[in-house]
Amino acid sequence: MAPLAPFVPPHEVIGEGPHRVMAIHGWFSDRAAYAALLPHIDRRTFTYVMPDLRGYGTARDVPGEYTTSEAGRDLLALADHLGWQRFSLLGHSMGAAVAQRVLAAAPLRVRRLVGIAPVPASGAPMEGEQWELFASAAEHPENRRTIIDVTTGNRHPDVWLDLMVRHSVEHSVPQALRAWLDSWALEDFHEQISGSKLPVCVVVGGHDPALSAEVMRQTWLRWYPAARLVILPYAGHYPADESPLALIRIVEDFLAQDPE
Asked: What pTM was estimated for this model as a whole?
């Protein structure tokens, strides 16, 4: 029997610049996670591809393991499909764990890495009520709302929170969402990336109590010697929505330092 063809995630390509960037969404969204950034990207310098991971958006009905390692393989298949030999990675939250799986599997293909409110390669273990809140969020949209509200500092209007939850529910599959949690929160593969000399930029929101600057110092900055940390004081866990202009300036200024 012939081996199954690699899965190429559905995706959107924006820009025509020579620096190629793969932007990976997080747990509660599909590729629309970056929608607020799109009007402001430098399309002459960069080409962005934004895929939908299995269980999300236009890949809602695609079955799979729903793990970061599987997603890493899928994204390398996407890079091959696009003819991208080398590219940079941009990942939000869970998407940053996926980005690190790509790096672990193909380190010579990655130019630079940006993690936005990023999950460390050691996972994000939780206990007790916190775990129950996250584990039941797949079936209970009100828990998604609570998580989004808490991780942005309880600062944003109800209309925005409702919009975020509605989009999450409409563009994800509960079974996949629940499986993804076990992978990004519980799997520890930091030994596969520790010591990488890749240029890395870690961006966190000052109002994110979960993936805070201190968490980054204990994880990302320890494992990536060339990592830098940037704190966005007016953002929480969703800087692309909360501070899009500040975020895209940080991202593209960092990526542009590699002139290849």
From this structure: 0.97
Give dist(CA 146, CA 209) in Å, integer: 13
Backbone φ and ψ for 205, nearest 5 degrees, come out as -90, 140
In angstroms, how far is CA 259 from the centroid of its own chain?
A: 24
Rounded-to-10 torsion of CA 56, 62, 68, 72: -110
What pLDDT digit, counting tens, does each position of 146-200 carry? 999 999 999 999 999 999 999 999 999 999 999 999 999 999 999 999 999 999 9
List the domains of the chain with CATH numbers: 11-255 (3.40.50.1820)
* Whole-number Å distance between alpha carbons of 195 and 71: 23
Residue recorded with tokens 């870690």: 202
CA distance 21 to 55: 22
User: How many beta carbons lie within 10 A of that of residue 258, not counting itself?
Assistant: 12
Residue 137: φ, ψ to 5°: -65, -25
Copy the structure tokens of residue 207.
């109002």
